Structure formats: C-alpha cells, structure tokens
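Hi team,

Below is the intake form for Glucose 1-dehydrogenase 3 from Papilio machaon. Please confirm the fields before the structure is written into the shared record.

FORM ID: S-0412
PROTEIN: Glucose 1-dehydrogenase 3
ORGANISM: Papilio machaon
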Amino acid sequence: MDFNNKVVIITGASSGIGAATAIAFAKQSAKVVLVGRNEEALNLNASKCEEAKGIKPLIIKAELTNDEDVKRVISTTIENCGRIDVLVNNAGVGISGSIRDGIEPLDLAISTNVRPAYLLASLATPYLVQSKGNIINVSSIAAFKPIKDVEFLPYCMSKAAFDQFTRCLALELGKDGVRVNSVNPGATKTNFMAACGYNKDQMEEIFKIREQSVPLLKMVKSEEVADLILYLASDRASSITGSTFVIDNGEMLL
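The structure came back. Fields below:
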C-alpha cells in the first residue's frame, strides 16, 4: 500500500489508536494531519511520523466539540495541503452512565462521539469527492452489544448511532466515488478507561478480566486496529463501503 501524495486527517491522533494510525499512514508516505487537544503529545507523535519517511506532519490543536475548531481543521488542511484523501474519525471518549443519571451523559456522548465526526465529514465531503477519497469511522463493538462490566449506556448508544452514520453516508456518497467504512474494536489497551475516570489499578484489573474472558485470551493492540484502517483506506479495499469491521479477539462471540 502506498499513500504517496495522499493527505490523511486523523482525529484523536495524540495517543492510542489515533497515534498508531498516524504512524502507519506515515510509513506509507502519507502526509498526515494530526488533530487533537494535547499539543505536547501531538508533537511527540509527529516526530515519530516524520521519522518514518521524512514527511513532516501537519499538527492542528483542536477541541472538536467546538464547531469553529472543526471548521479550522478542514480550512487549515486545505490551506497547507491543498486536498483531502482520507478522513479518519477516531476522536471520542468513553462515557459511563445509566438511565438513572438523567440526560446529561447522553448529551455528552452524542456531542463528543457523533456530532464532531458528522460536521467534519460534511465539511470534508467536497474535497473527498474531488479526490475520490474515503472516510474511516472508528467505532466500537459497543455499537452491537452492551458492555457488561460497567454501565455504559450513553457510550453504547453513541457508537450505534455512529455505525448507522457510516452506512447512511456510504449510501449517499457512493455515487460520487467516496467510500465510508467503520472499524469496531473490542477491548483495546489504550487510555480509554483512564478517560472514563478509572485509576491505574482499576484499569489493570479490567484488562486482566478482559484478557481472560475472550476466546484469544488477549486484548487488541492499537497497531492492529491501525493496520485494518490502513487497509480499508487503500485501493485494495476499493469495493468495500458501508461496512463495519469487528476486531475484538472473538469478544463478540460471548
């Protein structure tokens, strides 16, 4: 796979799946646009990307719940790169909560995990039509089944909506040659649980339980998810659109 002269926007690119995805694209000669809130972490990952093929990434510090920041992601990319070939909607947060917690957790889940990706895709669409590019949405197996260990109702709902967004958008943009697919990881060793408020010991315990409970007896690595994203964004997947790809060590079988 070769992404030479291709411009790839990756949100949530400062850590975890987003960081691994940025490095994977950089190794294939892409011009990566790293979007996130933590500028220090973005700079660190940009250095790793540049080491791959000597192509300097574009860094955009942004809060994606702010519409003006979302607009700036697209305008800055076009000003500096002139095109958009791939949009990886990876940014999102884990939001715990139950029906007893009121509407606020759901509002937060939708405004963080769905709305920014919708707006980004809307603004990027004219450029993706020009390049015959594609969108990869990073969702979760929580879109298909509840998370048993903790109360994650708002998060699960937001990811189910995200998958439907993938399918509807693929149908709408297919005639323009733009593909849209979703990658749905299971339990992955990232800072996801920390963002939900769990401490290190609690995270390690959850990781241990997950590793012992899935068929392959391990957790997904960010690099494995990145490899799947890279494939779906490449010409090798030119006939794949509107699909959701589970990568979960068999967790969906349980």
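SUMMARY LINE: The CA atoms of residues 50 and 56 lie 5 Å apart.

Thanks, M.
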